[in-house]
Amino acid sequence: MIGTNSAEEIRLTIAKNHQHVQERIAEACKRSGRSVTDINLIVVTKGHSVERIRCAIELGMREFGENYPEEGAEKIQIIGDLPGLTWHMIGHIQSRKAELVVDYYDMIHSLDSLKLGRRLERFAAKKGRKIPVLLECNVSGEETKFGFAAADPSRWQDLLSDFSEIAQLPHLEICGLMTMAPFFENPEHARPVFRKLVELQNYLREHLPHINWDELSMGMSSDFEVAVEEGATMLRIGQAILGARPYC
Hints:
This protein has helices at 7-32, 50-58, 69-79, 98-104, 114-127, 160-167, 191-207, 224-230, 239-242, and strands at 40-44, 63-66, 86-89, 107-111, 131-138, 148-149, 172-178, 215-217, 234-237. The chain has one domain: Alpha-Beta Barrel (TIM Barrel), CATH 3.20.20.10. By secondary structure, the protein is α/β, with parallel strands linked by helices. Strands 1, 2, 3, 4, 5, 6, 7, 8 and 9 form a 9-stranded parallel beta sheet that branches. Helix 5 (114-127) links the parallel strand 4 and strand 5. Helix 1 runs parallel beside helix 8 (224-230) and helix 4 crosses helix 5.
């Protein structure tokens, strides 16, 4: 909860953080010859209170991302159906949580298997929804990361069959790709990971040209400027805007 005495201070801090992040995005766009209008900033609310999210909403933020389906659904229910809000599911989705995700989220960044795609399709059809999705790809090769195995370009052809089948699911709409880079003290070390996702995007545009691959969800609080320079269209930023989470 935000106490009465600290509410304004927290609001001002979030406003200042948000402005600073936007300035850093603008500088990264300038360095790479891009437009800030190409970038969609998603505020990650994992671990943060409803009160803090409401501060962000009052400050004009409208795109929010959650890692855990149940935690996010609870917040979405409390905040209510406010005009213009978009909720992104950015975390791993267990099969048993697929229906919850379809019920509450507007976009899915973490579709990481054909099996999950089929399950999401079933619930989306039942609800009469068409949900935009991004295919999560593990281009770093980290064993702890979820996603389609995409670290080895010589194996990218193995992805085409699953991706084609997902694209044929009538209640899911592929919009692009998502990845998570390993955490590095020096964000420059994440650059090859982001660059590889762009290479995969180009490969898919050539081999599956009937599918929309335009969106690239990559870059978080620790490395978003490098992600912008490498072509990100969606940034998932939490702590740099809302502050440190009270739990991990």
